Every structure is written in C-alpha cells, then in structure tokens.
Hints:
- The protein is of the alpha/beta class.
- It has helices spanning about 50-55, 65-70, 75-80, 85-90, 100-105, 130-140, 160-180, 200-210, 225-235, 255-265, 275-280, 320-325, 330-360, 360-375, and strands at about 5-10, 20-25, 30-35, 35-40, 60-65, 95, 110, 115-120, 125-130, 145-150, 185-190, 215-220, 250, 270, 285, 290.
- Bound molecules: zinc ion.
Amino acid sequence: MSAARFEVLVPPPADGSTRARLGRLELPHGVIDTPQFMPVGTNATVKALHPDEVEAAGASIILANTYHLYLRPGHERIRDLGGLHAFMGWDRPILTDSGGYQVVSLGDLRVIDDDGATFKSHIDGSVHRFTPEHSIAVQEALGADVAVAFDQPVFPSSPRAVVEDAMERTHRWAERSLAAHTRTDQALFGIVQGGLDPGLRERSARFIAGLPFDGINIGGLAGDETPEERNATLDATIPLLDGDPRPRYLMGLGSPLDLLEAVHRGVDLFDSVLPARVARNGQLWIPGGRLNLRNERFRDDPAPVQEGCPCPLCTRFSRAYLSHLFRARELLAYRLATCHNLTFTLDFMARIRVALRAGTFPVEMPELRSRAVRMSGGEVAVKRA
Length: 385
Ligand SMILES: [Zn+2]
C-alpha cells in the first residue's frame, strides 16, 4: 500500500485546449488539492513565519531541504527528536528534496562519480558524501510524507553529452534510491532529467515512469532556460505521461506566470523560494502587478498593500507602515511581506483550481495570464491597484 494516493478529479478536456487537471493527493499527514504550490522551509522553517501563519496563508504542504538539514542540525538529531513534523511544529504534509540539487550545484566544492557525490559543506568546509542510499537514509530519518530519489541535475544549457551522462546516472541512481527506500509511511518520487533535448526527455520520461515511484518529478528546469524552451520541454515530456496515474511535480518554479504556463501543460505540484525571497526584498505581489515598498511614494500611502486581501499585513497595516518597517530594517517587515506574497501565490493557485473544477480554465486562461504577466513585468504605475 502506497503512502501516496493520487486521484484526478477533473481530467483535461478532450478538445486538447489544455493539459491542466484538477487532482487530490492524499498523504499520511493530510490531503492536498492540486495544482498546488509548496512554500519552501529550507532550514525547517519558512523564513520569518510561524507555522500557523504558513497555514493561514493557505499552504497545505511545504518543502524542506535535505542537504541543509543533514548539515545542520543533522538528520539523526531530528529523528531522535521525533522527526521533522514534531521538530518544526508542522503536522501537515512535508516533502523533502533529495539534496541532489544543492550537492551538485556546489561547483568547485564537489566531485561526482558513478557511486555518488563528494562535497564540502558551505558552512564549515567539512567533507561529506551523498549516495542514493545515503540520501534516502537521511530522508527516512527526517520522515517527511514524500521523499525524492537522488539525482544529478545539470544546467539546461549544458552540452548534450553532459546532459545525457547525467541523465543516465540519474536513472541508475533512481533504481538504487528505490531499492534503498524502506519506509512504508513515506512516498517516494522519481526525477525525469534530459535537459532541453526532446529525445533525451522522452527516454528519461519512459525510464522513470517505468519504475514504481509514487510521483514523477520533472527536473533540470527552472534553471537557465528561457520560458519558451521550458514550455517546449514540458510539451515534449508530459504527453508521454498521459494515462499515468501519478502526480507530476516541476521543481523550482514560483512566479505566477511560470506556474500558470506549467499547470496549463499538465503539472500538478510546484515549489520555490521566489515569492518569499522577493517579499523580503520589499517586492509585494498584487492583482495589478507588483509594488516595490522601498519606493519613495509609499512612505505616505495610507492604503493597504492589497484591498480585500485576508493576510495579516493587509487587514491591519498601511503601505506607509510597511515602507517604514523596511527602511528601518525592522524584522516585522519580512514577516508581514512574506505572509502577503505567500497568501497571494496560494490564492492564485486556488483560483486556477476553481476554474478547473468549473471547466472554465481554457476560457479564463487569457485573464489569468494577463494577471500573471503583470507580476513579471515592471512595477505598478498607478497608486491604487
Ligand atoms: Zn495581503
């Protein structure tokens, strides 16, 4: 019996206007409506927020980073303290990544061979080694609802030979990750690689989908590719998974436009630090676009950041107050701004799900897209958006 049960509630329409679908993913610590966005809690905390605020923002699952928690405070310490859920005070679903992305993106600090990757800690320079078996052991000790197979991501723009070599290694590591995984109360997802090459993507999708994983990650994107290259890669990959009963997860996407385009192409799950990171820099997302709260004009603006937003920032404070907090580098600024951007992002996903449930997603796509494009463009010109 698998620890993950996924059900497609509304499949894509037969007319081919979209591959977007509405789903429901049942995990040991709760149920997730898909398409869904996972806020990132790198160090077992979504930066600046109390878990109750993460939940109030609309999050039903968060991601925690295996690499960071392995180094500090240590997976065995977390296991001995009752596992990640108890340790961080979050009793809803958690997904841990494999550590592959952090380990292999350390550049000069790491060496990869067929057995695994040796790397130096970014904290103290100490030497460590991750193999598929060790990544799984660390993730089993952390005890998230979903673990992920150890992989070797490469930049999408890497030469084909490099991409192919990493893909083949990822396939061997996928089999070893599966063989090493023993926890029956934890799901395990596998990762498709293959860069921007449709042929490699096809080989990888068929290989990974042929293994008994609980979900299919689409890796190696959200890197240095253009949106057009990413969309083309998704269009070459997702149709191969038609009829596959498992959830699809694109790692590392977080802007509303990127999320929308990937949902449209059939992706169910996402994670990214982006909404929280830009919030801490004073960039607030609203339906009209984005506001830079460090801009002079907000110092006298009594309006809330977003009229009608239910978040702790907008229900109580003005743009002028938040602007002041950022200028004074007060800690409350980071907390309130993060609450808002996560609320906005998770609400955007909820709107997509409402449209999918109603069967109006293809019709609403232009409006959703123009709303999302405004977030990626310049700052809002009007004072009240
Ligand atoms: Zn708000």
